[in-house]
Amino acid sequence: MTFSHPASEPQRLQKILAAAGLGSRRHCEGLIAAGRVQVDGHVVTELGTRADPAASRIEVDGRLVHAEPHRTYLADKPRGILCTSSDPEGRPTIVEWAAQVGADPKVRLYGVGRLDYDSEGLILLTNDGRLAHAMAHPRHHVEKEYRAWVDRPLSREQMAAIIEGVEENGELLRALEVAPEAGRGGPTLRLVLAEGRNRHIRRMLEAVGIRVKRLRRIRIGRLTEADLKGKPLRLLSERDVRGLV
């Protein structure tokens, strides 16, 4: 990779790395703290370090950092795929799957948010670190909508508890909206979240005595399944991306 910038202006190192497609700023801060980043031949571990992206030689794990054209894909993740870039156990990852169904293999992609191994549906893949950071920031409240196939219908009391919030393992888990759906081959719920914790919906429903049999994300902000246009993965336009946050 090679990084160039039109203006010679020092910037925080994590911002430079995120803009080059190496992940969110938080992820890039981890790279710096771990001693994996060099500026002009010197290892940098201080997070406040600034560098000139036009004049400095910036490397991560010995590889020169280059600017990549920003690419953001909307993907329909199947079950049985990990939302990571690699897996020591050799299980299929979202990055490998995306390359197989049409993503540019030369672009280093990262998932924005996660879906667990057994869940499916919409996920964003991007090399735009600023977009990933904005999407993850609580102030933007990017809604995510899900369809859950469950083992039994929910009572009014259970739905009220989910809206109010249930405590599970020290975390308060809640939904913005929850509503039953009819005609889908068994008890089905539509749920809307403003934030997503690890296995949020499964844990939240289990806390009120409901088991999730299948879980699918059907909306991220303004993007829905219809925006895939019948494909497993679609490159988003600049207009699509601007409407996300």
In a few lines, what is going on in this structure?
This protein is α+β, with helices and mostly antiparallel strands. Helices cover 22% and strands 28% of the residues. It has 3 domains: 11-64, Roll (Structural Genomics Hypothetical 15.5 Kd Protein In mrcA-pckA Intergenic Region, Chain A), CATH 3.10.290.10; 72-138 and 224-242, 2-Layer Sandwich (Alpha-Beta Plaits), CATH 3.30.70.580; 143-220, 2-Layer Sandwich (Pseudouridine synthase).
Map the helices and strands.
Layout (H helix, E strand, L loop, with lengths): L10 E2 H7 L5 H9 L3 E3 L2 E3 L5 E2 L6 E3 L2 E2 L7 E6 L16 H7 L9 E3 L7 E7 L2 H8 L7 E7 L5 H9 L1 E3 L2 E3 L3 E5 L6 E6 L6 H8 L4 E9 L2 E2 L8 E3 L2 H5 L3
Parallel strand pairs: 9-15
Antiparallel strand pairs: 1-4, 2-3, 2-5, 5-6, 7-9, 7-17, 8-9, 10-14, 10-15, 11-12, 13-14, 15-16
Helix pairs in contact: 1-2
